[in-house]
Specification:
Helix content is 56%, strand content 4%. It has 780 residues and is mainly alpha-helical.
Length: 780
Amino acid sequence: MNVRILNELSLLKTALSAEYANYLTLAAESSVPPKQRQSALNIYAAYCYVVGQGNYRALEILNDSSSLNTHFQSLIGFVYSRDDITIKRRYDLGHQLKALFSYIAQDKRLTLNEVKLSYNKITVDVSSSITQFRKLNIDKTKADYLNGWQVVSKEGKEYEVYLDTLYVNFGEAFTNKIHLALKNYSFTHKSLSLVQVLIDLRRLFVGISIVYNEKAGLTIETLLSRNHVQLFFHKVFKVLFVRSQAAQNCPKSFHTKWRNTINYYTECFINTGVFAEPHKPFIVPGWKDPKDAAPTFSIGGNATHPESLRWFANIPLRIKDEEAVSIIQQRVERDMAHIRHVCLLKFEDLLEREDRNKVFQSKGLVKPLSGTLGYIQYINFVGADKLDNTVATFYAHGIAAKDAAYLSFLGFHGNASQLNTELNLPTCSTLNVLLTLLVMEHPRITPSWLAKWDLFDVNGNQVGFKQVGNQHIAVSCKSRKGAINAQQEVVLNELSKSIVEFLIQHTRMSREYLKLQGDVNWRKMILTATSTNAIRPSSLNTTLLSAIDFYDWLQDKSLFDKSSDITLKDAKAISDIHSLRSIRRHRGFQTYLETRSMDAVAEVLGHEKKEANLLTSYLPKPLMDFFNARWIRQFQNAILLEAMKDSEHRLDAVNMRAQDIEEFLNNHGISNIPEHFDHGFTQQTTTDSESSESLEFDQLTYTISTSLLQLLMAIRFVVENRDDEESFLDIVAHWYQSAVFVLDTLSSGKHSADDDLIGMLDIATNNKLDTDSIKGALLC
C-alpha cells in the first residue's frame, strides 16, 4: 500500500457505504486531530477495500463487541504489515485509529480491548494483530491497486503516476500496459522535464476517460488504433478545452499544453510501438488572439473581491434587474460621497491651518539658531503652547536648519507627528486627501500621471500648472500612450484648481529644501516633508497606502456626514478598499451607471473614442459578471419554483420567503410550454393556391447550457424510470417533452458541426446530476 496516494484512488470512495462513511467522519471530528483525520480515514477505507466486497455498512461491528475487536485488531495488523512506512509512522496511524475506534466503542456502548502500541518496536499485541490480518484472504489485485503506479527518472528519483482514471474505466490490463510504457519512457528523462510530462499526460488520461463511451461498441484499444485515434483525440481536445474555458484558464496556454501533450504521447506510445500512428496527423490547432476584441477601458485593473462584495452583495433575486442596477448605483455613489465628504473636511482643515500659519509667521517671534543658552526669554519660547513662535521660527530657518536636536529646538521633542501637522507639511496622509479629490474630479488622472508630474522643467519654467486663456490646466504625461500622445492636459474646474494651487503651496518648503541640496527632484509636484527632511516618494502608490492617519480619518465617526447612513462597518470596508486606482474604478463605474454609455466612460477616463456600434453592446466586466451569475440563478430558481410549486420544501429549495415568491415570479418566472408541443416544429400544410405567407410554426427557442442539459437528462431519466404508482407534478410532462426534443435533436447529428453544443453535451453526459434529489422535486 502506498499511503501517499490513497486520497487519489477513486475505488476507495465506494469501499464504505455512504451512511457508515458519514458516521466515521463525524466520529473522527471528535477523536482525531484535524491534520491527521483524513489520512486515518483513508487508511481505514483502504483496509475495508482489500478485505471487503465494497459498500461496507459495518452493521455487525457496531452492534457486537467481539466483532468490533476482531475488526479493529485486524485493522492494526493491516497498518503494521506495511513495510513502505517507518515504525514511527505506523505507530502514529495506529494511535489515530485507536482513538477513532475508542470513540466508536464508547458511542455504541461497546467494549474495545486494549491493543498496546510502541513507537519504536512491534509489541506483542501488534504481532498478534499482524498474524490475524495475514490469515485473511487478501485479493492480490486489490492490494496492487493500493500501491498505485510509480516511475523512476533518469537520476533514479521516483514519481507518482496517476492512472486511477484509466484503471477504473478500462481495467487492470490496459492500465499496466500504459504504466509499462511510462516507466520505459521515464528512464530516459531527467526529473525536471519528467514532472511536466506526467502532469500533461494525466490531463490527457482524464480527457480520454471522459470522452470514452462504451455504448458506442468500441474498446479503448480500438479507439487508440490507427483508424480511430485522430478523431478520438480531437474529441478529447474539445472536451478538455471546454473544461479549461469553464475554469477561466488562459486559452492560449491550453493550446500550448495540448501541443506538448501530443508530442509526449507520440514519443511515449507511438514511437515505441505501444500504439499505432494515426493515418492522419493529430489535430493540434494553434491559438490566435482575436484581432478585433471588444473594447475595454483601463480603470486601474479589474474589480477586486472586496469591491465586488461592496457593489453586488445581498441584492435580492426577486427584484427587477433595473432595480438591481439602481441599488448598485446607490451603493457606489454612497461610498464615493463618504470619501469625498471626509476629504473635503480635511482639505478645509489644511486651508485653515495654512491661513493660520501665515498669521503666525507675521506675528510670531523667531528663535535664533544659536546663542539662546542662558537667556530667560527663550525658556518655553516655542512648543505646543507657543505655536505662533514655533511656526515663525521654522519658516524663518527652514527644513533641517540645525544638524541635531531640531525637534527639541522647536519645542516638540519626541512628538514629530504633531509638529508636522502644526507646520502643515505635506505627508502621505495630506497628499492622499488632495490626490483623492483630484482624481475624483478628473478620473483620467492615473497614479503614473501623478508620479511623473513636474511642476517645473529643467530650465526652471513652470509647466505642470498654467493658465491658458480663461482656463487653468494641469499637465503631465502617460508613458503608455506613446511618445506622440504622452503629454496629457487636464482642464481644471474651480475645486481642482484650488487643490492644485494649495498643493503647490503645501510643497513649497520641500521644494526649496531640495533645490538648496542640489536634488533635481525639486521640480516634481508630489513631494513630502518633515521638519528635518524632504523627499520625492520613490513609489507613490506605496507612500499613499502607508497613510495611517488618512485611513483613520475615513473611519472617524466625527467626520461622517450626518445625512448619510454610513456605519462604522461601512467606513472600515471603504477604508480597506480605497486607493487611487480604486477611485478611478469607482468613477468609471459610476459614470457608466449614470449614463449607460461607454463613450462617456471613455471620455471621463481620458481614452480615445471607440466605435459606437461596438460600445452599444458593451458592459463593464464587473457588472456583466454580476448579471451573468444573477441570470443563471434566476433561471434555476424559476425552474425549481415551477417544478416544486406543490412541495412543502419549495421555499427551502430557493432560499426565499413566502412573501417574496410572488414578486420573483412576476419579474422572472417561466410560463408553461405550449400544450401541443410534439417534439419538434409543427407545420401547417398548404395547397398550391395558398400563399406561402400562410405557413404557421409553433416555435420555441432554447438557450442551451451545460447545466440545462444536465437537468433535462435527469428529468428524462426520472420520468422514463418511474414506478407505476408514482405521480408527477403537471409541469413535469411539459419539461419531459422538452428534454426528449432537445436531447434527441442534439444526439441526431444535426448539430455535430457545432463544437460548443457537442462539447456541452459531452460534459453533461459525463457529469450527471443526482437523479434521486431531482426526483424528489418532481413528485407530487
